[in-house]
């Protein structure tokens, strides 16, 4: 049953995974020639925000003749503007005078706590309960989809500077959602027949060994989990470590697992995170894409719209058309979330919509499958459908792509036009309404969930 995927690894040389974290920042050869001021900025910012980059990214994805403008450099290396000036100055001062750890650490922790480390109700509202006990390592926000955070997959091959999960990479244990309990996962899913989708996330589930991934996924082929049709793997590995699917020692085991799952009638959706077309230009990345698709898995793509990285329609158009040509399906364009270095990356909602529209206008139909720009906010995923005028009032037209209450989904609603707004909480109801249509309902849900969690803990 387990047909082998064509495996001609000889064509690609295996590569040792070599990674640099903030402690080895100064050892990275490629940055030795950059101006000292720029390197100092990086040192300061990497005290606060997580930094991890591997040699493949440094050698193959970054154009070192275009610093600091290079999009992959911006995507992985700390930049001064990622901290607000007052935060930057405070940490920089301590670094300059070589302050001891006991002085530095509390300052860094305070700065981090001021960066909204856990947005969108991740800590409590999404928490599932099994036998009346909260299940760490899982989130269940939308009826049909459960998020699972396998404990072996809570880092990434490299870190994105804009990552909304940044807080879990800087050692704050209370922010780790990890679970090592395949059994709890399977029991929860068996009890929840409304769940059709399991989304493995992290970190990045593809940093896991194949045998660990198998532990979580093999059990899904049992009869009592027939209702779990779709297995999504949220991953940036095609960008940061495509060798995972080509020359890594267990590359073939991963592809075999995908094949077994698809042969068993599961839909394996590899949710690839790409921010820029440049990430897909290397032969090794293209080979990895080819192999994943040959295993029977589908690849869908998603990315936030980011100032300094991809805030223009031409790059999006080239990214989506490249993806379609390589057999991948564009799925989401996100709005940068309200956490971490968001002030550096955010783009006004008005501009985000214009970029979406200009992109759609210049790509063929097959590349117009991505929804967005979408905000993954507390009540749900809210999409900006456009700006218009109703009886002389300028408004945003919005709708839920996903809602904590399925009844909210796909109902158009309106917010007052605001040229500078960058997130849902900046918006106000339009047309004389005092609250958005979902708000009373959402308040009631929050109270109910808090009572449940309070009872359980
Ligand atoms: C985006 C998201 C999902 C998946 O939503 P789809 O509309 O099915 O893609 C599930 N859970 C959470 C918490 C999400 O943010």
UniProtKB/TrEMBL annotation:
Question: Cofactor(s) for this protein?
Answer: pyridoxal 5'-phosphate; [4Fe-4S] cluster
Instruction: Keywords in alphabetical order, please.
Output: 4Fe-4S, Iron, Iron-sulfur, Metal-binding, Pyridoxal phosphate, S-adenosyl-L-methionine
What the entry lists under InterPro entries is as follows: Aldolase_TIM, Lys_aminomutase/Glu_NH3_mut, rSAM, rSAM_sf
SUPFAM superfamilies recorded for this chain? Radical SAM enzymes
Which family does the record claim for this protein? Belongs to the radical SAM superfamily. KamA family.
The family database entries (PANTHER family) matched by this protein are listed as: L-LYSINE 2,3-AMINOMUTASE AQ_1632-RELATED, LYSINE 2,3-AMINOMUTASE-RELATED
Q: What is this protein's name?
A: KamA family radical SAM protein
């Amino acid at each position: 049953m387990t047909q082998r995927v064509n495996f001609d690894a000889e064509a690609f040389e295996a590569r040792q995974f070599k990674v640099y974290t903030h402690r080895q920042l100064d050892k990275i050869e490629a940055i030795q020639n950059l101006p000292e001021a720029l390197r100092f900025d990086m040192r300061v910012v990497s005290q606060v925000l997580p930094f991890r980059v591997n040699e493949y990214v440094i050698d193959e994805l970054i154009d070192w003749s275009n610093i600091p403008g290079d999009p992959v450099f911006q995507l992985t290396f700390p930049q001064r503007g990622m901290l607000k000036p007052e935060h930057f100055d405070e940490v920089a001062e301590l670094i300059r005078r070589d302050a001891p750890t006991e002085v530095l650490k509390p300052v860094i922790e305070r700065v981090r706590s001021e960066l909204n480390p856990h947005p969108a109700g991740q800590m409590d509202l999404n928490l599932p309960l099994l036998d009346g006990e909260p299940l760490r390592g899982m989130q269940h926000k939308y009826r049909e989809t459960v998020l699972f955070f396998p404990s072996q997959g809570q880092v990434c091959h490299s870190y994105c500077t804009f990552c909304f999960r940044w807080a879990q990479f800087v050692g704050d244990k209370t922010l780790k959602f990890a679970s090592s309990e395949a059994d709890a996962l399977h029991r929860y899913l068996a009890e929840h027949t409304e769940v059709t989708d399991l989304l493995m996330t992290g970190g990045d589930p593809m940093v896991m060994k194949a045998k660990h991934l198998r532990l979580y996924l093999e059990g899904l082929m049992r009869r009592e989990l027939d209702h779990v049709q779709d297995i999504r793997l949220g991953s940036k590995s095609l960008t940061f470590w495509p060798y995972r699917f080509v020359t890594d020692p267990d590359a073939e085991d991963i592809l075999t697992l995908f094949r077994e799952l698809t042969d068993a009638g599961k839909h394996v959706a590899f949710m690839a995170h790409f921010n820029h077309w440049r990430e897909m230009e290397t032969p090794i990345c293209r080979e990895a894409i080819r192999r994943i698709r040959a295993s029977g898995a589908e690849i869908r793509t998603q990315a936030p719209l980011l100032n300094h990285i991809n805030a223009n329609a031409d790059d999006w158009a080239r990214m989506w058309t490249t993806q379609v040509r390589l057999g991948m399906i564009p799925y989401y364009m996100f709005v940068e979330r309200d956490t971490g270095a968001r002030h550096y990356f955010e783009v006004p909602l008005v501009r985000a919509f214009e970029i979406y529209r200009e992109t759609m206008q210049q790509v063929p139909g097959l590349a117009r499958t991505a929804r967005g720009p979408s905000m993954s906010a507390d009540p749900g995923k809210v999409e900006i459908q456009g700006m218009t005028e109703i009886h002389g009032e300028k408004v945003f037209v919005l709708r839920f792509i996903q809602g904590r209450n399925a009844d909210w989904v796909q109902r158009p609603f309106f917010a007052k036009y605001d040229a500078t707004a960058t997130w849902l909480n900046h918006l106000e109801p339009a047309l004389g309404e005092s609250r958005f249509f979902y708000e009373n309902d959402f308040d009631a849900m929050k109270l109910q969930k808090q009572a449940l969690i309070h009872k359980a803990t």
